[in-house]
Design brief:
The chain contains 13 helices and 11 strands. It is an alpha+beta fold. The strands form 2 sheets. Strands 10-7-4-9-2-1-11 form a 7-stranded mixed β-sheet. Strands 3-8-5-6 form a 4-stranded antiparallel β-sheet. α8 packs across α9 and α10 packs across α11. The longest helix is centred in the C-terminal third of the chain and has 20 residues.
Length: 314
């Protein structure tokens, strides 16, 4: 009788993602806060907006461009964002070898609990806070990633096991090579913490009138200091950040909800549809209708995939 073939962990991750993300775009997993990403083609410098999250690429390669810095995330490196950031992303993929990844939204209540425990222990240094970090994917993190993907093939495993594995992955991030910088950012202390608070406000109320001076006052900073520290975190000005946030949300509404450009413009706070169209084309490089047609598959959000016959008995 032939012995069963034992797959390498990375090969197993890729196999699971092929099945969990059978189509291009985003696929919601069985656990809220975890999504799968797939691209069957290369994408050049696409404007994206990521929420605070961990992005683990198992096949293919992505690069993030924020200001003059480049962040690589591939099968050997994962990406962590401690604040919501708009940046430009480049994807290496092909129909024969699609880009396959998993994005885990950071639950700040879970992170805060872990940071508190770590702060009470010794030997964990705090670095300078950074909003975006690419860091090597070590064996413990790869093992947890595989176990999470495996758990997300079964509704009962996703409900019982997956939340604990997500918590473990957050812990691995916080104690990893760049953990000190990530912990400092996620602790939301000092000037970085004030900017992080302002970013949360912008993302909660982007459709409202947001005055920079008022945002600065809400976080206890002068307008000049707010501008300096805001740009240090986001690599852009507050006005440009607010504008890009509105435009990104409008694009998603048009792609995922089928809204017209005029309806999306109104939803994100634009009073003039023509102004919205001008700023949209300037930002994305294409008018709304053309951009939506091009991004339908890339930004689509599909429901969880039922993976028949994949869950293993325990």
């Amino acid at each position: 009788m032939a012995s069963p073939v034992i797959q390498a962990p990375h090969e197993r991750m890729v196999e699971l993602l092929y099945r969990l993300a059978p189509h291009e775009g985003y696929t919601q997993s069985l656990l809220d806060g975890v999504r799968f990403l797939r691209s069957n083609r290369p994408l050049k410098h696409t404007p994206v907006l990521y929420e605070p999250s961990i992005v683990i690429v198992c096949q293919g390669r992505k690069r993030g461009y924020l200001g003059d810095e480049v962040y690589l995330y591939d099968a050997q490196h994962y990406l962590v964002l401690s604040v919501p950031l708009p940046f430009s992303s480049e994807t290496e993929a092909s129909p024969e070898e699609p880009m396959l990844a998993m994005a885990i939204r950071l639950d700040m209540a879970v992170v805060a609990d872990l940071v508190l425990i770590l702060d009470q222990s010794s030997g964990h240094s705090i670095g300078a806070p950074r909003g975006m970090i690419s860091t090597p994917l070590g064996e413990p993190m790869a093992d947890a990633t595989l176990r999470l993907l495996d758990a997300l093939t079964s509704p009962i495993d996703a409900r019982i096991l997956a939340p604990a594995i997500v918590r473990e992955i957050c812990y691995r991030v916080l104690i990893g090579e760049q953990g000190g910088s990530v912990r400092a950012a996620l602790a939301h202390q000092g000037q970085f913490g004030r900017i992080a608070k302002a970013l949360r406000r912008i993302h909660a109320d982007y459709a409202e009138t947001l005055e920079v001076a008022r945002l600065a006052g809400e976080v206890g900073m002068s307008a000049p200091a707010f501008h300096v520290h805001f740009k240090a975190v986001t690599r852009t000005s507050p006005i440009q950040y607010i504008k890009s946030t509105r435009l990104h949300h409008a694009r998603l509404m048009m792609v995922r909800d089928g809204l017209t450009a005029a309806a999306a413009a109104a939803q994100v706070g634009y009073e003039s549809p023509s102004q919205f169209s001008r700023e949209f084309k300037r930002f994305f490089g294409r008018p709304p209708g053309e951009e939506v047609r091009e991004m339908k598959s890339t930004l689509a959000l599909l429901p969880p995939t039922q993976v028949a016959g994949l869950a293993q008995p325990h």
